[in-house]
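Appendix B. Chain record.
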Amino acid sequence: GGVTLSLYPCQDAHAAYRKGRAHRAEAGTIDGVEPLAGIVGSEPCPKYIDKWVASRVVEQTTFGPNPEDEAEIRRLGIEGWVDEQLARPPSLIEYEDLMCYSNFFTEQGRHKPTEYPYWEKVPIQIVDRFVGAPDQLRLRVSWALSQLVVVSSRASNIQEIGTGVYFNMLQQTGLTN
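Structure tokens predicted for this chain:
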């Protein structure tokens, strides 16, 4: 049984071999053992990513595939796209105006005419971020984490402000150690 080493065509890449008994090499890796051969170059070799692979990556890491993200994945590669997503600043919820009830209610307790009802402002902003914010991977991770430790602005003592604080905390720290 022979083994074929095929390289993707990339600039300045070449195969490097470690001295040893290559004829006894086996497929796989063992902790603490250096590989007999590897690809050496200034940049990692990009793998060809077709439309279907890009679409699946976008579907699994965002809130829905779109042609722009698919094109970015095909251009940057999966690792490059993930790096770009991680470098983007987190999309945060604005909730400071919720701290003052007079922004939404009259002295008699009636709701003032505003764009959104007081109790819907944070949930609507969260959905808006899911649909259109550029940091889709971070948002998807925040969403997954929020399914593990669930909070609600309905029938809870944290109210809308707490939901906004919780969402922002997930956005700011969800992808850190």
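Further analysis of this model is presented in Appendix C.
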